[in-house]
Structures are given as C-alpha cells and as structure tokens.
From TrEMBL:
<dbReference type="GO" id="GO:0016538">
    <property type="term" value="F:cyclin-dependent protein serine/threonine kinase regulator activity"/>
</dbReference>
<dbReference type="InterPro" id="IPR039361">
    <property type="entry name" value="Cyclin"/>
</dbReference>
<dbReference type="InterPro" id="IPR006671">
    <property type="entry name" value="Cyclin_N"/>
</dbReference>
<dbReference type="InterPro" id="IPR013763">
    <property type="entry name" value="Cyclin-like_dom"/>
</dbReference>
<keyword id="KW-0132">Cell division</keyword>
<dbReference type="GO" id="GO:0044772">
    <property type="term" value="P:mitotic cell cycle phase transition"/>
</dbReference>
<keyword id="KW-0195">Cyclin</keyword>
<feature type="domain" description="Cyclin C-terminal">
    <location>
        <begin position="294"/>
        <end position="411"/>
    </location>
</feature>
<protein>
    <recommendedName>
        <fullName>Cyclin N-terminal domain-containing protein</fullName>
    </recommendedName>
</protein>
<dbReference type="InterPro" id="IPR046965">
    <property type="entry name" value="Cyclin_A/B-like"/>
</dbReference>
<comment type="similarity">
    <text>Belongs to the cyclin family. Cyclin AB subfamily.</text>
</comment>
<keyword id="KW-0131">Cell cycle</keyword>
<dbReference type="Pfam" id="PF00134">
    <property type="entry name" value="Cyclin_N"/>
</dbReference>
<feature type="region of interest" description="Disordered">
    <location>
        <begin position="66"/>
        <end position="94"/>
    </location>
</feature>
<dbReference type="InterPro" id="IPR048258">
    <property type="entry name" value="Cyclins_cyclin-box"/>
</dbReference>
<dbReference type="GO" id="GO:0051301">
    <property type="term" value="P:cell division"/>
</dbReference>
<dbReference type="InterPro" id="IPR004367">
    <property type="entry name" value="Cyclin_C-dom"/>
</dbReference>
Length: 419
C-alpha cells in the first residue's frame, strides 16, 4: 500500500533517524538551539561571557554565600579584561540571567563583579548591613529541644507511636476513676487494713509461683480495693475475694489463665468451685464489669522509657512500687504519681544523689518537689522491707531471677530532704 501524497517525505534535508542523534560513534555534532543565546557554543569560553540561568531566589543568605565564595580578578583600564594568558590572575565575571518571562529569548544578562567594593546589585535585593549578616547567621542555629523517646520504636507497630501520647493523655483523665477513698476501711466492720496487707502479701507470692505477668498483679490489687470500697466483706470471705480478683485479672491480662481448681488448691481447699464462681459474679456486678482502668503499671512502662532505664533501674523501681501495694496508706496517691515516685526513688538509690531529668518531668508531669512526699515513704518501706512478718516482696526480689534487687541500699538521704 502506498502512502498518500500528503504524507510523502520529499525532502529530508539534514534530518536523521532517531537512533543517529548523538548516540552513534563518529556522528557529526548538531547545532544546539539553546547555545545560540542561553549558553556559549563549544570552544568559545575564552571569548564569550558565561551565562547562567538563575534558578533560585536571590535571598540575602544566597547573596552572602556568593560574596563569601568570590575571588579577585584584574580588570583593565578601558573596562575590558586583561587577556595576558595568565588564567590565575583573574576570574571572569559571572553574569546572571534575570528572566522577564518564561521564554529564553527574553532573558537579560547582568554582570556581577565580585572584586568590586560596592554593594552587589541584584534585583529584589536590599543592601546588607551588619544586622543583616547577623540575621543570616542566626538562621542556621537550631533550638535545643527535648528528644522524643519514641524514635527507636517508629517502625514497631505495637508501640503505636502515632497516638501513644493520646493514650496516656486519656489514662491521666481516667486514672481518678481507678482510685479509691484512702479511708474506705472505716466502712468495713469485720476486716481492717492489716488484714488487707496480709492478703496482698500472700497474693504476691501466689503471683510469683504461677509466673503471671506484672500487669496481672497490679490489676488484682486494684480490683480488690475497688470491691472492698463498695462491698462489705466478712473476714472468712476476704481470701476468697482475693483469689477471685486474681482470677478476673488473669482473664483480662493473661494468655494462659489458671483454672479455678488451681486457685482452690492454692487456698488450701478453703473454698469450693461454686463459691469462687459466685464471688466472681458478685465482684463484676459490683464493679459494673469495668476492668479497663489505668494501674501504676502502665505509667511505670512509660516513665521508665523516659528515664532511659536499664535492667537494674527497672527491677529496683518495681521492687519499690510492689512494696507500696501492701501499704494501705499509699492509696492516697494517684497511680501516675506512685509510678513516677518509684522511679525517682530508685534513681536516687542507685546514684546516691537526687536525680530527675527534664525528660522524665516532661512525660510524667511531676516535678521533683511533687515526688518528695511519696518518695520518702517509699524509702522507709525499702529500709524495713526485710523486717516484720510481711516479707513476700523482699523474698521475691531477693532471688537471682530478680537480680537480688532487695539487697540494694535505700536512698536514706531523702528522709532528711525538706519539701
């Protein structure tokens, strides 16, 4: 089939196939239309001025950088450059192209003389004085900020770095609901705070024997206190309430939950399976099935991360705060304050001096002065941990598994610190 006359190529002139455009060895060079005006032709650098297209705005910082990189060159008396063959004696002026429109044909060339002592004349650039130079230098300064503690977990989806601050902001708003009245025992007629301490000290040993998660222990104590604050319990049912609270905490936190028979066995068969299930229904109805409350454990994890804690500081912090679980008087402190004070007390114990960083203060929202009252009580508990009858926490942290943390020296100097 022949091509129509309108599409026939009659005169190719100097046209070449696409494969022959500057990609065949020995192909003759072709004229570049840009070289006619915007750029110098080949071999004409010695007799033509170099023209550059200004691609960035002429800011004061950019002009200052140009002036700092300038080199002196010699200039003739008649306004022309001296061409004596010595290239090192001068550098040709670099003209700038100031585009008046998007077309290259409408560009104007401006010669910039770096050797001149006068101010640099550029469009839209004001004369710079000393204050301008200082302003340029100040632009490079970086303000000191507190580093983020979540950078290392940016690629960990379980760390939920994107909204972890929102989570802990919600914890702070709701932690009041997890607190109970510090004198709720006055409403109980058959039990007292000493019986509560005996129960929790025993549950800490049960928790250690069953190798349960740390979250389970803190939630167990929280369930017990919230239940006793709303429901009167007789003395012989207090242990039943304790083991049932641990059963509920295991169902909420653990992957592998202990069976009811195990809890009955650990209670020396003092209760039956039916009694445990009846107590379970009573507790969840009294608490309105609300088990999702922030305990000191969730704040411990966040504050330990802010403190850049190692294994030794972490163990000592948990040892101190578990001592507080047994003490009824510590119910007057919020969970977040207990966590921050435990870490602060542990740091003081390990370092031998008061230590609380700005990062810890920022993420805990507690200053050192706000922690001193709670911290001094913790030092007293630490000092007396191995004494008396309730030594379950001390025995637990005296094992090799917990690094013999209970043998660490308490920060006694905090007892003499004034508020």
């Amino acid at each position: 089939m022949t091509r129509p006359a309108s599409f026939r190529v009659t005169d190719t002139g100097n046209r070449r196939a696409l494969r022959d455009i500057r990609n065949v060895v020995g192909a003759p060079p072709y004229a570049c239309p840009i070289g006619k005006r915007g750029f110098p032709d080949k071999g004409s650098l010695d007799d033509k001025k170099l023209t550059l297209v200004a691609r960035r705005p002429a800011t004061r910082k950019f002009v200052a950088s140009l002036a700092s990189k300038s080199q002196p060159y010699q200039q003739g008396t008649n306004g022309q450059h001296q061409e004596d063959g010595s290239q090192s004696q001068y550098n040709p002026p670099v003209p700038l192209v100031v585009p008046k429109s998007s077309c290259l044909d409408s560009c104007t060339t401006i010669d910039v003389d770096y050797n001149s002592s006068n101010d640099i004349a550029l469009p839209m650039v004001e004369e710079m004085d000393d204050s301008d130079l200082k302003e340029v230098a100040m632009e490079d300064l970086v303000t000191e900020t507190i580093p983020s503690i979540d950078i290392c977990d940016s690629n960990n989806p379980l760390a939920v770095v994107e909204y972890v601050e929102d989570i802990y902001s919600f914890y702070r708003q709701t932690e009041v609901t997890s607190c109970v009245s510090p004198d709720y025992m006055s409403q109980q007629f058959d039990i007292n705070e000493k019986m509560r301490a005996i129960l929790i000290d025993w549950l800490i040993e049960v928790h250690y024997k069953f190798e349960l998660m740390e979250e389970t222990l803190f939630l167990t104590v929280n369930i017990i206190d919230r239940f006793l604050a709303r429901q009167t319990v007789v003395r012989k049912k207090l242990q039943l309430a304790g083991v049932t609270a641990m059963l509920l905490a295991c169902k909420y936190e653990e992957v592998s939950v202990p069976v009811v028979e195990d809890l009955i066995l650990i209670s020396d068969r003092a209760y039956t399976r039916e009694e445990v299930l009846e107590m379970e229904k009573l507790i969840v109805n009294t608490l309105q099935f609300n088990m999702s409350l922030p305990t000191p454990y969730v704040f411990m994890r966040r504050f330990l991360k802010a403190a850049e804690a190692d294994g030794k500081l972490e163990l000592l912090s948990f040892f101190i705060i578990e001592l507080c679980l047994v003490e009824y008087k510590m119910l007057k402190f919020r969970p977040s304050l207990l966590a921050a004070a435990a870490i602060y007390t542990a740091q003081c114990s390990l370092r031998g001096l008061k230590y609380w960083t700005k990062t810890s203060e920022l993420h805990s929202n507690y200053s050192e002065d706000q922690l001193l009252e709670c911290s001094r009580l913790m030092v007293d508990f630490h000092q007396k941990a191995g004494l008396g009858k309730l030594t379950g926490v001390h025995r637990k942290y005296s094992t090799f598994k917990y690094g013999c943390t209970a043998k660490s020296e308490p920060a006694l100097f905090l007892l003499n610190t004034t508020l």
